[in-house]
Amino acid sequence: MSTNNTVIVGAGMAGLAAAIRLAARGEPVTLLEKQTYPGGKMRQLQVADALIDAGPTVFTMKWVFDQLFDESGDSFDVSVGLNKADTLARHAWDNQGSFDLHADRGQTEAAIGDFFGARSATGYREFCADARSIFETLQYTFMAATRPNPMQLSYRIGLHRLPTLWNLKPFHTLWQVLDSYFPDPRLQQLFGRYATYVGSSPFQAPATLMLIAHVEQEGVWYIDGGMHALALAMRDRATSLGVDFRPDSEVSGIIVESGSAVGVALTSGEEVRGERIVYCGDISRLNADYFSNAKSPTSPVKPKHRALSAITWNVVAKTSDFPLHRHNVFFSGDYPAEFEAIFQNGQVPIEPTVYVCAQNRNDNSQLISGEKDHMLCLINAPAFGDSRRLTKFEMETHWGATSAKMNQCGLKLERAERQATATQPVDFNELFPGSGGALYGRASHGWLASFQRPGSKTALPGFYIAGGSTHPGAGVPMATLSGMLAAEQIRQDC
Q1: Above 70 in pLDDT, residue 3?
Q2: Fewer CB near the terminus (10 Å): N or C of the chain?
Q3: Does pLDDT of 2 surpass 90?
Q4: Domains of the chain, start order
Q5: What's the mean pLDDT when you consider all of the chain?
Q6: Is pTM, for the whole model, over 0.70?
Q7: Closest CA to 489 of 458, 460, 446
Q8: Contact 15/31 with Cβ under 8 angstroms?
Q9: Using H for helix, E for strand and C for coil, what is the string for the chain?
Q10: pLDDT class of 162 with cuts at 50, 70, 90
């Protein structure tokens, strides 16, 4: 048996951030992780001789990490190798050419005018201005602040700023507002896809999510060694501050005594005690069986409210006939049908939109190592990972649909050269118990959804939560902010 002031369960982005912030302030911290590596969803898989990111692939909101490392007495730019992208992503709908979004707004506006027409270029300029306004309104009142309720958020913004509040567009879906900016349905698809960054449908998510467009325009970076290198750098910073990082330590439950959380039980039989416990897994894991002599302080996300899951293939293959960029999107021909299949019918779409991250391509679309592409290929899927496993035939069918969409847009993968590892919703549920395979916690559907994610402080004394299923939401920077907020809440409570 061991005793520490703070025990953190889970070394994903939230757990690592909480550990760094607490340790930088002199707190003794034990960080427990069931895997042999840090990062949570930010993991890598080996395919042939390549290590390929199998989780998040887009790095944004660098200011979050700058702040975290600065607070800890280190430099993020020194600790992590970064290269800022000039091209954000390449998009295709058919074999009639591709369209690039650029980091430079003027360059993108000109490209939209050339590809989609002058009216769409004007709409893009207006869209960018509104997206920026939404982001700047919510950056420090919501994202980097403790979870407010709607009235508290209104007070933080200022009740006298009614036009600003209305401009958040919470009562319209993202899809509803996009046609006011873009007459071309392809651009509606392109910018509607930002809802999937938080595991949601553009037909149900609030138009507030326009802010993600501004986040990308502020900067997308490539990380040397892949996204998993970020997790390794954060682990190294934590351990340099004295954090006791314990991989291969799976937690089986929370120990509650005299009405307070006082430790965790490991599957090995060991107990690790602490004055405070920070749980950084999916909140839906926190059922009655997880607590000794206490009721769970949170409620699980109901299956109908779960965010997207995915089917992914980590692939090494020779490609041809399409100029792959680092980030590529091949859009389905019927976007409404795609999301209806997932969220209304609980089915994998027959014709999916396909995301391909070609991880050994640089910003000039050149292969930087070898003759084969190292790719993460992803399609959206329902979060039914705790109720069914897709059969081998079904997985082959979905890969066939994925390949067909890529082929339709011109991308060919040489079958004889292809090596791949597949992951489906049931696998994600096994990696992240309680989630059903949902990769983003609760779907951001409806204007109240963002307020329904729990904050870091729970009703159980000594027990805190963080991660993508808590406030402020899913995604690498948001999960990191949640860990920082949990650490700040502990500081205030001590």
Answers
A1: no
A2: N
A3: no
A4: 2-42+225-301+443-493 (3.50.50.60), 104-218 (no CATH)
A5: 95
A6: yes
A7: 458
A8: yes
A9: CEEEEEEEECCCHHHHHHHHHHHHCCCCEEEECCCCCCCCCCCEEEECCEEEECCCCCECCHHHHHHHHHHCCCCHHHHCCEEECCEEEEEECCCCCCEEEECCHHHHHHHHHHHHCHHHHHHHHHHHHHHHHHHHHHHHHHHCCCCCCHHHHHHHHCCCCHHHHHCCCCCCEHHHHHHHHCCCHHHHHHHHHHHHHHCCCCCCCEHHHHHHHHHHHCCCEEECCCCHHHHHHHHHHHHHCCCEEECCCCEEEEEEECCEEEEEEECCCCEEEEEEEEECCCHHHCCHHHECCCCCCCCCCCHHHECCEEEEEEEEECEECCCCCCEEEECCCCHHHHHHHHHCCCCCCCCCCEEEEECCECCCCCECCCCCEEEEEEEEECCCCCCCCCCHHHHHHHHHHHHHHHHHCCCEECHHHCEEEEECHHHHHHHCCCCCCCCCCECCCCCCHHHCCCCCECCCCCEEECCCCCCCCCCHHHHHHHHHHHHHHHHHHC
A10: low
Q: Which two tokens stand for residue 251?
A: 């937690």
